[in-house]
Fold this sequence. Notes:
By secondary structure, this protein is of the alpha+beta class. Helix content is 60%, strand content 16%. The chain has one domain (2-119). It has four helices and three strands; from the N terminus they run βαααββα.
Amino acid sequence: MNYEIFSYGNVDALMGLFNALAAIVNGNVFLTAIGLVFVVGFFGAFLGSALAPDRLMGPKWLMSVVLIYLVLFLPKATVQVVDKTGNAAPAVIDNVPLGLAFQASIVSSVSNTLTDLFETALQVLPRPRGSRTN
């Protein structure tokens, strides 16, 4: 999947940020940290379910964490950073987690649309010829 991120300058900083995040998420240290969270969290939920009346707390927690990981972190997307000022070529970054790419694209698209609307609505229009100022 391809997602666009709109920028008004400073494409290099956004490209570096998304490249760093893609490298972190695809690294072995991140997978080790996720595995540690799974193990410690499951034991905590198991202990909580042993002491609480809700006996399904552990399996519910495990299913929700697995679902979040499978939906937000596991699928990868391609992000294209587009400079709206036209000073830089679009930058393409692969292997960005889908959750981050989707959210960044939505926020960027909404803010870009609002910027375009405000620029259109607040531009100074020339006066017609022959009009007087009061």
